[in-house]
């Protein structure tokens, strides 16, 4: 919903996200060391978590040819937490 004042139009936003990552999300391998015989190391890695979730909260404002915005976001999973902030300003000729 937009809110309109004297010369400004303000629009808040909220986005919630849940993403399922299906399929092969792990990898296994063996590392062989150069110059060393009979020595190898087994490695296992999870490439992506099964689910990621996030939220973005922002506000945009516009007056005439000038607009600006500010937002914060969070993305998380069982292994990762990520926070972000963004801002923008724009003048259209």
UniProtKB/TrEMBL annotation:
This is Autotransporter outer membrane beta-barrel domain-containing protein. InterPro entries: Autotransporte_beta_dom_sf.
């Amino acid at each position: 919903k937009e809110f309109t004042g004297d010369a400004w139009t303000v629009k808040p936003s909220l986005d919630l996200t849940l993403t399922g990552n299906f399929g092969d999300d792990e990898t296994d391998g063996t590392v062989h060391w150069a110059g060393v015989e009979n020595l190898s190391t087994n490695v296992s890695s999870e490439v992506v978590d099964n689910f990621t979730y996030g939220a973005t909260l922002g506000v945009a404002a516009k007056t005439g040819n000038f607009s600006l915005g500010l937002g914060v976001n969070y993305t998380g999973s069982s292994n990762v937490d990520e926070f972000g902030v963004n801002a923008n300003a724009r003048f259209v000729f």
